[in-house]
Amino acid sequence: MSKNFKSLPVQLSEKLITEIKEGKPLFQKPVKENGMPAFVKPLNPSTGKGYSAMNALILGMKRYDDPRWLTADAARFAGSWVKEGEKGTMIEFQKTSDIQAIRTAEGQKIKDGAGVTQTKTVEFDKPQSTKSFLFNAEQMKDVTPLKDFLARQQEGDTLTPLQKAEKLIADSKAVIIEGGQEAYYDKIRDAIFVPEKSHFENETKYAQAVIHQLSHWAGHESRLNRPMEGKFGSMEYAKEEMRAAIAAIIIGGELKVGHNFGHQAAYMNNFTKILREDPFEIAKASRDAQKIANLLLGTNLKREQKQQTEVAFKQGDRIDYMDTTYKVLETYKNKSIRVEDSDGARKTLKPDYGLYKSLLEAKRDPLGNGQAIDQTKSQSTTTEQEFQLER
């Protein structure tokens, strides 16, 4: 990588500063000119999983109406092709393991009788930062129509976006007091104050305002215990507002209810100053925003509930994970399994292997209703210079 290459948080901060100057960041413009939401929750259509907050911002800032994002390799495996001349968008995520070829002492790859390279799963001592390049479905051809994809996603969904938002608010059990002219969170009283519903243009606007305040509420010492000591107008206060604003964007995208940072104009100059002085603050704010979203959306609880039910592998299972599909060839009495990936590589996995546990989690949660994580492998054939945030 070039010594002059800028890290991803720096690139994102610079892009946000430019958009704030132009008056069009997601904080200020929640709806596009075509009436569609400015932020559409990005997801991997193969796994059904979304992307963590900072990557979701990067992908969302491209402002495609289609939520689907894949690497070029994963798109080809799914029967789609990236259009000629399209540029990938770079994301960054943490890997805890890697699949590597088994080699001889001389460094030669070991292959089986069929000529297939034998592989092993290597667990890292600590998570390693990995980059990958994604393409939106609108950059591809031979893609399932968006209408059909969304219809399948919504099968069995009995609640409207507004009903989901109202349920989230009720499930939080937060103290919400209506009255007055301003919406705010009082940390001392641990209560949210918001104007009466009749003060808002519609019920959705009311829900958006409450969700934003719930993002502050989540930081209380009895919940996420986030520092919130800054006075109004201070940089510390603005940093907290940035976290709440990003969380509201993520939650609004998840529920499809949208977001509305109503008092954004008062913070844009401070946001710009923060991003200039410390570009890596956007990464810190995004991590905190993801924690807020996880708490309010109840994803940790969902994951714990799902893990209470054991899901065994069976021969013939096909499991999407890490932009490939694993087929279970055999199962053994000791619970080990023999699998084959989409490249034809075969391996035997024991229950204590990291890949075994990851495949079991993917089988339990195939639609990605648990905590949003990035499960995209590095695409070595694409160079970092191809990364382009929307101009």
TrEMBL record:
Example GO molecular function: single-stranded DNA binding
Compositionally biased region (Low complexity): 375-391
Ranges for domain Polyvalent protein metallopeptidase: 164-287
Coiled-coil regions listed: none
A Pfam cross-reference name: ArdcN
Region (Disordered): 366-391
N-terminal domain mapped to chain residues: 11-109
Protein name stated in the entry: DUF1738 domain-containing protein
Organism: Mucilaginibacter celer
